Amino acid sequence: MICETNRVLKRTPFVTMCAALVLVQCLGARANPAGSIDELKGQPDIQQWLWLMQYRDVGDGFRSKFRSSGFFLSANGASDPGLELEAEIAAFTADRPSGDDHPQCRYPTRYRVLRKTLALKEPVSCPKFDSWKKQLDLSRVSIVYAAQYLSNQASVFGHTFFLIGSDEMAEYMHLTFNYAADVPEGVGGIEYAYRGLTGGFVGSFSYLPFYHRLHVYTNMENRSLWEYRLRLSREEKELFAAYLWELGDRATMDYRFLDENCASVLLWILKTIRPDFDIATNNSIFIPPPEIVQIAERQGLVESVHFHPSLMERLRSKIERMNPAQKRIFSKVVATTGPTEGMNDRLILEAVLDHLAIRRHRHRGELPKELAGLERTTLLERSKLEDRGESEFLEALKPDFPHAAHAPMRLQLGLAFDNEASRRVFKIRPALHGLLDREAGYLKNSSIEILELELRSAPERSIYLERVILGSFSNFNPANFYEAPLSWGAEGRLQREGSSLENGDTYFVETDGRVGYSVEFGGPRFLAYGMLAIGAKSRSVKP
Question: I want to staple 289 with a disulfide (CB 3.0 to 4.6 A). Which of 139, 160, 442, 459 is the partner?
């Protein structure tokens, strides 16, 4: 079946229903190749509607990624796009009193998209939706990338969310639109990983003031934020607001860490409001959060980038501006936890306040009692000086932007020599980041490597499995003159035993954990560390 609609003849109810019938027939033709999801997406009249409903081909029909029944007008809308489209057209063409319960008000995106093709009823008044849009204003729409946070399983890959607001209001009053997994209390470890990889968590959408996220990310978790302001037309912003309205209180999905995560969902939201937006990713296995800003930047969607440094980054920037005398005074204040001579310098006072804020957050919002006197003295001294903000102290910050991040997949070819015999080595890592990779978009001095596969071949044998790294994590926090944080690492792997190829293959599972200290020297490119490791090894088995 060839599915077509006529964009010119769409002004009468009869033509409207004929066009609707053609669309419904197209969506209902599951057994015919013309009804496949790929071919349907190629038809402009329904492509955008398919995207906003998130239908995909599941072999014997269609299935929407949305799971909540309240998102659909048809009882079988999640699995039958033909019935869903029929129900929506009926709702948008029926005579109903206007008001917030009108289908146009509940599903404004679908109404706008279908009205491009079909002669639906004229727009009705939607007081709640109109008031909500007016408050948002949407003169500012951004993607925000939050850096990785290895202390929380849910944040080891970083995070992305939308920032929406008006240029007329203070930045901290803007609103954020977020998609994340709803993880029940008590879930952790193996269960957390398994459910996260297989779609065992429900993903939902939520709003939160930007000042709250800014405080949690930059102050409590010491994660820097990069805000990518988007270049959208007024019409695209209107459609964007309508779609957020639909998603916000009635849409849920199956959340998967690798491919149905915060980055992939934000990508298809952008695809919905801008159909020509190409959301092709580096691979279909894993979509890391930095990739969304790479795609947006590559296609000219980014208007500007604004950096929100973490509390630790702000402190480091101030320390880098200090001369040796200032560093000695600051170090003495930190070491003695009390005021000292010469601390009336503005740069030192600002650095001490940052240090106290870090100590407060590390103690769950309570400043240790021995630091209470230092805080009062520092605030008193700081109040005597002119308040010029801290922007001048952040000039030394030269962050690597996430849109310059490397692709998560890595391939390696090489030679290994063992007992004077050479063996060819092939390695593939689907995700994510190693210590020798470019650090832009990833946490400095850290690595997260998942499912790295190492294959080898030798003259006496074609190809055999040498090793599978199930997961390898490390975080090196260099010590400096005012603190010495712990560095740590952990790894789990399946390892081939021995070097001989004569007696077949035996394998064992090995895990280890490491903790110690590290230090940078000669600039940030050199790192020295010492670690104490403890591990466990299973018995060897033949596959």
Answer: 160
Structure tokens that stand for 150 in this block: 């290895």
Q: If pLDDT is split at 50, 70 and 90, which confidence band does 59 have?
A: confident
Closest CA to 239 of 41, 48, 23: 48
Judge contact between 309 and 341, C-beta under 8 A: no
Q: What would the two tokens of residue 478 be?
A: 């260099």
- What does each C-alpha distance from 196 to 154, 261, 306 come to in angstroms? 9, 10, 31
H helix or E strand, kind and range, residue 17: helix 13-28
- pLDDT per position as a tens digit, 455-484: 888 777 778 888 888 888 888 888 877 778
Residue 255: which of 317, 189, 198, 318 has the closest Cα?
Answer: 198
According to DSSP, the β-strands at 446-458 and 461-475 are antiparallel
Tokens of 145: 């990338």
Using the CB atoms, write b or e for 293-312: b if 16+ within 10 Å.
bbbbbeeebbeebeebbbbb
Helix H segments across 215-345?
234-248, 262-273, 290-298, 311-321, 324-336
Asked if 481 and 331 touch (Cβ cutoff 8 Å), the reply is yes
Question: Which amino acid is residue 151, in one-letter code?
Answer: S
Q: Extract the tokens encoding 221.
A: 């978790």
The predicted model scores a pTM of 0.83
What is the Cα–Cα distance from 436 to 474, expressed in whole angstroms? Answer: 12
State the virtual CA torsion across 435, 471, 495, 411 in degrees, nearest 10. -50
Neighbours of 57 (CB within 10 A): 16
CA-to-CA separations, 149 to 81, 205, 218, 376, 461, in angstroms, rounded: 40, 21, 11, 31, 43
Neighbours of 459 (CB within 10 A): 10
**Torsion sign, CA atoms 216, 221, 226, 228:** negative
User: What DSSP element (H or E) covers 450?
Assistant: strand 446-458
pLDDT at 297 over 50: yes
Residue 19 pLDDT > 50, yes or no? Answer: no
Given a cut of 60, whether residue 1 has pLDDT beyond it is no
Please name the helix (run of DSSP H) or strand (run of DSSP E) that holds residue 180, with its range, or none: strand 175-182
Nearest to 476 by CA among 454, 446, 455: 446
pLDDT tens figures, 371-398: 888 888 888 888 888 777 666 677 667 7
In the predicted structure, residue 218 carries a pLDDT above the cut 70: yes
pLDDT of residue 2: 32
CA distance 216 to 210: 10
Q: How far apart are CA 473 and CA 150, in angstroms?
A: 9
Compute the distance between CA of residue 307 and CA of residue 309 in angstroms, rounded to an integer: 6
Q: Is the dihedral of CA 385, 390, 395, 397 positive or negative?
A: positive
